[in-house]
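Intended use. Records such as the [LysW]-lysine hydrolase entry shown here are meant for training and evaluating sequence-to-structure methods. They are not intended to support clinical decisions.
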Amino acid sequence: METLDPVEFLKGALEIPSPSGAERLVAEYLAEGMARLGMKAWVDEADNARGQLGAGPVQVVLLGHIDTVPGEIPVRLAGDKLFGRGAVDAKGPFVTFILAAAGLPQEALERLTVHLVGATEEEVPSSKGARYVAPLLRPDYVIIGEPSGWEGITLGYKGRLLVRVRREKDNFHSAHHEPNAAEELINYFNSVRAWTEGLNTGMRPFDQVQYSLRDFRIHPAQTKQVAELFFDLRLPPRLPPEEAIRHLLAYAPPTLELDFFGREVPYQGPKDTPLTRALRVGIRKAGGRPVFKLKTGTSDMNVLAPHWPVPMVAYGPGDSTLDHTPHEHILIPEFLKGIEALREALIHLARQTPPA
């Protein structure tokens, strides 16, 4: 079994581009690293980087995604900052998982079996990697690799609903007093916006319904006018996707075509579980002050929570405000603290009574 330099190992992962759907090369790199660290390691049929160690009764899944959004950021070290696409979202957290697990003492590995999953296609609605392993693993505890800051423990993420709306109608002269196809879509989107703003009155951000217009197109008119818009909703626990769809259909005139996809249920876990207690212990042992967080985005937590009804949180070093930005970077001291804190948390978890 070898040792790996943490910064160089992460830097190597960042230097391999892995936009959603093209993760194979970085998965092979990460699997090779896990094998060098003494783990059973392989790349599975969904191109996930997989690792396993320990032989204990307590099953722990550490799952973080290894795909990134498009957009290259030159990988470089600048002082204590490591720049690169995926540094915080989310190769950094997954490499943290690998290195924390690799440093576990033998007594912990006699109590735990740790399953590492570097998941594919999290940044697109498919969540291919997480959906592939959902029926294959039966964890007692789950940690999702997402940037929370090394002192942060994320308890929940909003759900999501993607909506595509289309209007096609006979063309007419612009002097005719009638809304054209594009104007009908604008009117509908404005009604959706008014509905969400009414729901959000007096609510904290995590409990609000967020909307975002992602695309709007007007096709050249010949005999027909055709317009399309695409928007997404971020849904709090009080509004699951099916309930949101009911409202959206009620506001839509029958002339509009609506298509719904990317449905992810909202999730919020409890504060007090053996897993959250272990993470609080680990963060304190590493010199930090643990804080709980709720995120307004979505993650593979939303995909897996319906399949794995066990204690689940998200954890990982990094500043999530840098996600998807051209300035994405991780602070090296925070990255190293995250490894230390997670390792201590897993050691503490190993000492707990195995769940029924």
